[in-house]
Write a structure and sequence with these properties.
D-Maltodextrin-Binding Protein, domain 2; 257 residues; alpha+beta; globular; 7 helices; seven-stranded mixed β-sheet
């Protein structure tokens, strides 16, 4: 519970640090080697998260911090994305969030996601379950794919990667921020999500924690369980959803992807 309190406090203070910046009216710089946009809001949130979360003996992995491989020797590591969905933030689309996860021995044990634009806060751990805006919730209990709401990456949809799935019985909803998508699935506000392109640990760690806390399933494209605090913090595509849909989702992806 101490860890969840720390996550909650970190999310609140990071959101406060971002609040002076107006979504849709923020200047963005480009990271080196085409790694996407970054804003002063990203950097401000990163500083606050580090100040609130990090304690002696713990490791740190953040999209906006230089990677210190000393984290590999730590049992407990914070994996954070100070502002996941920077493209949406810059465009003024309310699908971005602050994402925080605690990893122990390579596995996520707790996480939190806050979307300041919508006022949504997802907080949970494998041990205690999941809350959405302070109320207990859980992943989808849907048993059939017919009518299932599946959240898709806006960029993947634009590139045409979801076209094969349009003839299937699912409802595709383009949504920004992979952390936010996973949080919505963990809370049962959508039935599933998957990405067919690689992601970094900071993109998905908190969302993985929330899906697990909500009783859903989450795994890599090869059906293995994602692990964290790796030397190279990069994961293959990820699949998540209500537990009863796992077999059907895997069959659908195998058929069309």
């Amino acid at each position: 519970m101490d860890d969840l309190k720390r996550i909650r406090e970190a999310l609140q203070k990071a959101v406060a640090a971002i609040s002076p910046f107006v979504p849709g009216a923020v200047k963005a710089d480009q990271k080196p080697m085409g790694r996407g946009p970054v804003t002063e809001a990203d950097r401000a949130a990163d500083r606050v998260l580090r100040e609130v979360l990090l304690r002696e003996g713990e490791g740190w992995l953040s999209e906006e911090s230089t990677d210190d491989l000393a984290r590999l020797d730590k049992r407990r590591v914070w994996v954070v994305d100070p502002l996941d969905g920077t493209l949406e933030f810059v465009a003024g689309i309310p699908e971005w969030c602050v994402s925080v996860a605690l990893v122990e021995d390579g596995k996520v044990v707790a996480g939190g996601v806050s979307n300041p634009s919508t006022g949504e806060v997802f907080l949970g751990s494998v041990a205690s379950g999941l809350t959405y805006n302070g109320k207990r919730t859980h992943a989808s209990a849907l048993t059939k794919l017919e009518g299932a709401v599946v959240l898709a990456s806006r960029n993947e949809v634009k590139r045409g990667e979801w076209e094969p799935f349009r003839s299937t019985p699912i409802t595709i909803r383009p949504t920004g921020s992979v952390a936010y998508k996973l949080a919505l699935v963990g809370a049962g506000l959508a039935d599933a999500t998957w990405t067919l392109t690689p992601k970094h640990e900071w993109d998905v760690a908190a969302g993985v924690a929330l899906v697990k806390a909500g009783g859903g399933f989450v795994e890599c494209l090869d059906a293995s369980q994602p692990t964290f605090n790796n030397p190279s913090p990069r994961l293959s595509g990820l699949v998540a959803g209500g537990l009863a849909l796992r077999v059907q989702i895997r069959a659908l992806i195998s058929r069309f992807a």
